[in-house]
Structure formats: structure tokens, C-alpha cells
Amino acid sequence: MGDAFIRHIELLGYEKRFFPSQHYVYMFLVKWNDLSEKLVYRRFTEIYEFHKALKEMFPIESGDINTENRIIPHLPAPKWFDGQRSTQSRQGTLAEYCYALVNLPHKISRCLHVVNFFKVRPDDTNPITDSQIKKPEVFLLPKDAKKNSADITGPIVLQTYRAIANYEKSSRSEMALQAGDMVDVVEKSESGWWFCQLKNKRGWVPAAYLEPMDGPDESEEQEPNYAGEQYIVQKSYTAVEEDELTLKEGDTIEVIHKLLDGWWVIRKDETTGYYPSMYLQKAGEANTSMKSELRNRSAPPRRSTIRNAKSIHKQGRKQISQETYRRNSKRYLQSRRNMKEKFQNKANVIIEKNEREENKPKAQPAVPPRPSKDLILNRCTESTRRKIL
Known about the structure:
The chain is of the alpha+beta class. It is built from ten helices and 14 strands.
């Protein structure tokens, strides 16, 4: 038989897993040309990385040269925090993507990149688990939600956002916006710059100028993490607003809240404030040319600095005050200090106890009594008996 290829990919649903930490994986039934059927599990971030690599392999078919030639389907970028709601709502889009992928010309649908991605891996048959962690929860896609392949004809629709104010571009790679413009988001960068398309125009746009159509977008953001993640400052920045921090290159800080507009809340010692995420790099992470190039650009504007912003939603985004960040951060740091002191005191008690045991004078062995004369005469040798006579 010739080279293996995929006949059909069916999305069955998703699993909520709890090891090594809580996350979600999609379940796919992959049908191969030898009539075998295999079950595989993939995270959405994996699928999106596969999608980006496929576009790079086929630039014409992905529309990079001319958008009219695009046949590779669209796939929305992952959200900052993939919760159960976003995982569930993405199933229809993902099912359509898989159908469109398999029906592309053979040079794409049967290329090694596609075949290898959907091959069974060891963790598909034996997922990593922990006996002390509860078992994965399975959520199957309802039968009526699975579209018939004949109903799927068009390309996948990207996430649509609306501009809340006018934006004038400052470089050729950016795209100007007018309030009310509806743009499709192609890629979301954690720097706060999103790559968008508007009709035949494409370019980078500050995320702060965009709002989703279905309501405030705080659901896409992670909750504050006052334990903090350690990052290294890769580019100095001087604070412009009162709630920002001034730092120099090489400083070590902790990120406690990652926000969509690319301005993260960080902690330096006991001080908290905003800092451009594009000037930060996670401790221990390797530097790349792409990151270095990104840092040469200016930081995106913050939401709070946008004038004449007009939202279509009655309820605005929930904003955490800087005072709340400071208070909760100090509370966490104090609890960490108390815990450290508790363990330190416990260690000191053990050390003192060991030292007392070591310094305690050791009991001397008792001197046995001198045997009596009769005992010596009865039990000892002739030479010993002569000595007492």
C-alpha cells in the first residue's frame, strides 16, 4: 500500500484534565486510508501552532501573497486563558476546520506535516495521569451539533472585533482605524499588538482599541496571580502615567496580572504598577530574533489613555484598581514571609534540640565492684590467687 493519508477527521468533543495542571484537550477520531480509525487528543495551542506552520509551508494557498488565492481555512488564535466556555464554543469552528483541511488538494492534505500531526502518540493511548488527581471529565459534542459535511462549504470565520475610537498608524506595518470599523483578528500577540484585516487591508492594531461584539473581553484574561511569575526586563522604560513603573534593563520583576492590551501589572519588591509586556522576557527563556525585533517598536497605547472611546456595550470592562493590586500583593508577600518564618523557627528548634543533645554530658559507665577474696580463690587462676595471699 502507498503512503498513509487521512480520509476523514471527526471532532468528538473535549476532555477536562487535571494533571499536571488543569487544561483542556480536544478528542479527534482520525480515519485513515487503510480503513483504520484512531483516537487522538490535542490541545488547541498545539493545533494553532500546526496551523501556522502549514501556512508558512504553503504561502500561496494561505493567501500571504494574494488574499484571493487563499484556500487554507482560517483558524482563530488562542485566547490568553482557555477556560471551559471558550473550549466548548470553539468546537464548531474546529470541526469545520478539520473538514476543510482534509478536502484541500492532496499536496496539502496528504503532506507529512498533516499526517504526522494526527498520528497516534504514546500519550494518546496512555495519557499522563496521577492516581491522586481526579480522572478527566469528558464532554462529547452533541449529535445535533455535528454538521453534515455537505453543509460545510465556506471558509472559517475569524473573530470579529469593533474599533472603539480612531487610530492613526505610526508605521507601515500598522493599520489605521476609524471608530466603528469591524476587523477580523488574524493573530493575537501578548505584546498588545494584534494583526487584523479590514477588507483588503492588513496590519497591526493596538488591542486596546478593539472590543468584541458579544461584550466586555475580561473573560479572555487570566485572573491575577499574586504569587507572581519571574521575568527579566529586556528594555528600559520610563513611566509616563502615575500607575506605571520605571525600570532599567536587567531588572528582575514578578508579573502578577497579564492584560490583553499588553500592559501587565508587575511587582518590584513591594511596589506594583503597569509595564509594557513586550519589554519583558520570562526568566530562563531563550531570546529570539523575533522578540528582539518586537522590542524595537514602541509600546501600544493603554486603554485608559484612549480619548473619545465609545463602546457599544452598556457594561464596561471590570478594572482592578492599582490600590487593590498593591493591597493583595502585600497580603500575599506577608503570608509568604510568615510561612518562611514559621519553617525557619521550626528548623531552628530542631537545630537547638540537636545541639542540646550533642552538648549534654554523656553518662560515664559504672565501675564494677571489686570481686571478693573467696570469689577470686574459687574462680581465678593460680597466679591471680597467689597475689592476694
